[in-house]
Amino acid sequence: MSATRATNHQTSSRTIHTDEYGRGQYAQIVGFALRWYRHGGGADEIIREQLGLESTRYFTELLWQLTIDPPAPIRPTVMDSVKSVARRRLWLDSLQRT
User: What is the pLDDT of residues 50-59, one digit of tens each?
Assistant: First the structure.
């Protein structure tokens, strides 16, 4: 996805604008996901410290980015695993908020 193209994604009560992030931030998000997906996605504190995002926003953005602009060299099975971890973390977060 071009960093200049604005894409909106509605999640709960707010919209994430994927043009807020450049390619560097996108690479950081995907790189972090690839390092941590085997370990449940990483602790909330590590996500906040390394990416500057709350975990809910990180996992939402990760899923959205992988849907609209999946990194080509990553095997589909790995991509499915990363998405599964992200969906599970978002689901667990929704249970904590209720």
Answer: 999 999 999 9
Q: Does any domain span residue 1?
A: no
Residue 54 belongs to some domain of the structure: yes
CA dist., res. 43 & res. 39, Å (int): 9
Does residue 17 sit in helix, strand or coil?
strand
Angle at 39 between CA 61 and CA 19, to 5 degrees: 15
What is the pTM (predicted TM-score) of this model?
Answer: 0.75
For residues 58 and 47, the answer to whether their CB atoms sit within 8 Å is yes
Helices and strands, number each (H, E), in the chain: 4, 2
| Residue 12 structural domain | 8-97
